Amino acid sequence: MSKSVFYHAGCPVCVSAEHDIVNLIGANNVEVVHIGENRGRIAEAEGKGVKSVPALVTPAGHVLHINFGASMADVKG
Amino acid sequence: MSKSVFYHAGCPVCVSAEHDIVNLIGANNVEVVHIGENRGRIAEAEGKGVKSVPALVTPAGHVLHINFGASMADVKG
Question: What's the complex ipTM?
Fold first, then answer.
């Protein structure tokens, strides 16, 4: 199975959701990307349909927006 | 590991998220509850902090609201 990608921006909601997702699907099955620090990947996330963080993009390309930490506009600042 | 519980109300957003979650964490690790049909469990979901569906409650009791299908008020009608 290819990996899911979890996009976040370091916010408290993001960190909590990250722990839950890693526990649920396993650290080996998810790449965690901090788009606040790794800003080169903001466009990648937006291209996949990520509207807010935290969000999980499944191997099938589906976007699961989990709770609500920050909009992409907030992340871009 | 105790199971997670996925609460939904049969909406298209719910069904799509259900497929994604089952694929990610395994059908054996999640109980799927349709609170539109199984209305006796609405209070249970609300008691766990579910504000909208679809939502996944982890074994640790954390609520992950996934995308947005319907508010609990909508479900209660």
Answer: 0.92
